[in-house]
Design a protein that fits this description.
This protein has 361 residues and is mostly beta strands. The protein is built from one helix and 17 strands. It has one helix at 140-146; strands spanning 24-29, 33-40, 57-66, 69-87, 90-108, 112-124, 152-163, 166-176, 191-204, 207-218, 233-234, 237-238, 247-259, 262-273, 303-316, 320-332, 341-353. Strand 13 (247-259) and strand 14 (262-273) form a beta hairpin. The longest helix is centred in the middle third of the chain and has 7 residues, at 140-146.
């Protein structure tokens, strides 16, 4: 029923029910290496560039660990998109193929990890996958510049410090940043993202309790691009942060693990959303002025939401899981209309049961 109500779901439905395979793959692995082909979930670091908001997609994954270094990457297929092209007096329907590749190098130690990564979304009408974006050791951004392509690169890095009972994690990504101001085109605002989280864990009455604070923000146009097939989206949802473009969110959360049947969570959040959207047509307002150009973050009339969430989750049997949640929020400038206020509340209940058949040789 969850997928049947999802506006981005494009499969068949029957009496309000829908289904799909999310994890279908073949994996071969050794002690310090592995390759996988098929459909599976994927998330990196603080989930700014590859996050949890999107559906799993088909791809080839690889990984290898050499000493303290862990190298991983993938090359996959995104959903093709339909767009319209004008030719004379006619409007033509065109389907653009879409692909994504990424690689990540991580330094591992008992108390910290440090990583750098690069991802590329590319495509076009009739364009096949590029071998240079599949071979792990190419520098994607340099290759697309050398070949005169206008593909969409994101580079970034992340780190994690672990000194119990504290853990700090951080991620920073760059889609475009202007170092020099030599031409009017260099007035394009920086397109970046940042996420930072601090966790504290302790034992209370013999049970585990965690306290967390998190900030996450993505500037306008970061996931967007001139060509619609190069946007960081899959099936209508962002590939990275679920906030999309032009938004930030501050969250404080506490989670109490009373027992496997009772995991209690309470959360306060404050969300700001600008008028920029990941699906907007590409515009260059800095080229319409002479001299310096700047814009606030978030942009336009900012929708602001303050609220809280409560949830009670637990496991049953061997592979069953349930989650009941309540959320309340108060919205200022709702729908980006100045001084318009709205309140909302919702109750959610999820029940999941997984089956994991395994064939061993």
């Amino acid at each position: 029923m969850q997928w049947a109500k999802d506006p981005n779901y494009r499969g068949r439905q029957w009496e309000g029910f829908a289904g799909r395979p999310d994890q279908v793959y073949i994996r071969v692995a050794g002690e310090d290496w592995g390759i996988q082909f098929g459909k599976d979930y994927l998330a990196w670091a603080e989930r700014l560039v590859i996050g949890k908001a999107h559906d799993p997609f088909e791809r080839f994954d690889y990984e290898i660990e050499i000493g303290p270094f862990y190298f991983t990457g993938f090359a996959g297929f995104l959903n093709p998109i339909l767009f319209y092209e004008t030719s004379g007096d006619s409007t033509l329907e065109r389907w653009a193929q879409r692909y994504i590749s990424g690689h990540r190098l991580e330094l591992l130690s008992p108390h910290f990890t440090l990583a750098i990564y690069e991802t590329m979304v590319y495509g076009g009408v009739g364009r096949p996958p590029e071998i240079v974006y599949v071979v792990p050791f190419y520098w994607f951004h340099a290759e697309q510049l050398n070949r005169g392509q206008n593909d969409n690169t994101i580079v970034g890095g992340d780190m994690q410090l672990l000194f119990p009972p504290l853990r700090f994690s951080f991620e920073f990504l760059v889609d475009d940043i202007q170092v020099e101001k030599e031409t009017q085109g260099d007035e394009e605002p920086d397109e970046i993202g940042l996420a930072a989280q601090l966790d504290f864990g302790t034992s209370t009455f013999g049970k585990w309790l965690t306290l967390s604070g998190r900030y996450e923000g993505v500037t306008n146009r970061t996931y967007n691009q001139r060509y619609p097939w190069n946007r960081y989206t899959f099936m209508g949802a962002p590939l990275g942060s679920e906030l999309g473009n032009d938004a930030d969110k501050t969250t404080f959360r506490t989670k109490f693990f009373a027992c496997p049947e009772a995991i209690l969570t309470a959360e306060l959040f404050y969300l700001r959303e600008g008028e920029g959207d990941i699906g907007d047509d590409w515009e260059e307002p800095w080229m319409e002025v002479e001299g310096p150009y700047s814009e606030p973050f978030p942009t336009g009339v900012v929708q602001k939401t303050a609220g809280f969430r409560l949830s009670w989750a637990g496991a049953f049997k061997r592979n069953g899981f349930w989650d009941i949640g309540f959320e309340y929020g108060s919205i200022e400038n709702a729908g980006h209309e100045k001084n318009k206020k709205e309140d909302y509340w919702q109750i959610r209940m999820d029940v999941k049961c997984s089956v994991y058949p395994r064939i061993s040789f």
